[in-house]
Amino acid sequence: MNNNHIENTKIRVTDLTFSYRGRRILNGMNENFEEFAVTAIVGPSGVGKSTLLMTLNRLWENIPRAQLSGRVEMKLGGRLMDIHDSSISPSHLRKLVGTVFQKPNPLPMSIFRNVAFPFKLSGEKDKKLIDRKVEEALRKAYLWDEVKDRLNHSAFALSGGQQQRLCIARSLVLEPEVLLLDEPTSSLDGKAAEVIEELILHLRERTTILAVSHYLDQVKRIADRVVRFSEEKEIM
Amino acid sequence: MRAVKETAVERALLLSTIVSGSITLIIFGFMLFMALPLLGGGKIFQIFVGSWSPGDGSYGILPMTVGTLAISFLSVTISFPMSIGCSSFIGVLGPKRSGRYLKRIVQMMTGIPTVIYGFVGIFLLVPIVRGLASGGSGMSVITAALMLSVLISPTMVLFFNDSFERVPASYLDAADGLGASNVQKLVYVVLPNAKKGIIIGLILAFGRALGDTLVALMIAGNSTQIPGSVFDSARALTAHIALVIAADYESLEFKSIFACGMVLYLFATAIVIGVRYFAFTDRETR
Fold this sequence. Notes:
The complex is a heterodimer.
Chain A: H1 3-8, E1 9-20, E2 23-34, E3 38-42, H2 49-56, E4 66-76, E5 79-82, H3 90-96, E6 97-100, H4 111-122, H5 127-140, H6 144-147, H7 160-172, E7 178-182, H8 190-203, E8 208-212, H9 216-222, E9 225-228, E10 234-235
Parallel strand pairs in A: 3-8, 3-9, 6-7, 7-8
Antiparallel strand pairs in A: 1-2, 1-4, 4-5, 9-10
Helix pairs in contact in A: 4-5, 4-7, 5-7, 7-8
Chain B: H1 2-39, H2 44-49, E1 52-53, E2 58-59, H3 62-93, H4 96-109, H5 114-132, H6 141-165, H7 169-177, H8 182-193, H9 195-211, H10 214-219, H11 237-244, H12 252-285
Antiparallel strand pairs in B: 1-2
Helix pairs in contact in B: 1-12, 3-4, 3-6, 3-9, 4-6, 5-6, 6-9, 7-8, 9-12, 11-12
């Protein structure tokens, strides 16, 4: 591997094996994910695409009887660090690695409080800063104009596509270095999916994005690189 | 044919609803009828707010009502934080395996007969309270409340735990994805979304404490005075019924147990209304 390659690497996965209830889902995977690029992860259901994302933000640790071996390194502060290192807590890692799930999962609170929720977790009290960051995140997620007059309304009053953009805004509010998108448009109609795609293309300028997708057309439109999962994983 | 069957089933269900609803009302009517000799002649006010002194012709049940409420409120106050802590450990904070075992133990505790709690209270708790109160019998409001808090805790824990489990997984996923710690998940996601279940559990546990007879009878001391402090002896309505039931059937003393029954009935009705109110709003907001 040449130095140039390492310089562009944001995440390096080495010999990654993941098992759940005795079933091996990832089998000695080796992969590099480039910085400030959209990497699409494609393949049939059940081959471990979403599982890979869960290993990158350590959400796999919440799964009872799951086992992981191998190494996942992420470039933090300019150098690759093992994300399972004791100096990195899962909470801290998940603030650096935003996750957007397949189905929009707003919390039962107002639009504003949803996006500001990560500040509640980090103990930020500066109201002006929070107001500004919430607006920024909503603008980045192309949602500000649609919700600016009803920030105190319930997030459940939004449409599916708006809810998903709200979840993206919520992930963006702490300015994560990596954004993991697990089939973010699968539960949305075509128009809402288009907006999300445009948003992804816009975000890659500042963020490393890994997106699981089932739609090859969409992959062609948004991805800089494609990692294809099958029984034997290969790279397109 | 199918329509006839459906009509028959509907009518059978309606009949059973009317019968069970009527039985409840009949019970109240029966108690009212039995207590009439006490309540007649403008004495109704005296019965419910007067003191208990049968020698002077006073059959007021206010001390017992106050005793019941004092013991029940105190027991719920003691057991609520314990139960929230325990259910939080089972459902959110503790390792899944430990939580599972702990839940089984709590489930087992619901099956322990009340009299066992009474014994434990007499032989373990009463001497401790006697020491703390520097004298007296040790049988007091706080003794009964402490023991009752242990008795009602499993009800609360299991109810709280159920309401924690009903918090949608998507909320927990969202919190996990944003880097919430387990404590943050509990405080910001689980507890606010399980609030109604917690209130219902609290009301039901309060009902259990109100209706308990043996613990109050065995360790509250059964004094017929209004307790002035938690270290004073008190008599609960249920204990009063148990103690006076052996009196002469025709005596006014005996009739007083029906007035106690009416007060307990009204408390139980208030609890049912409370639970239904919160259960209804719970469904509406989902």
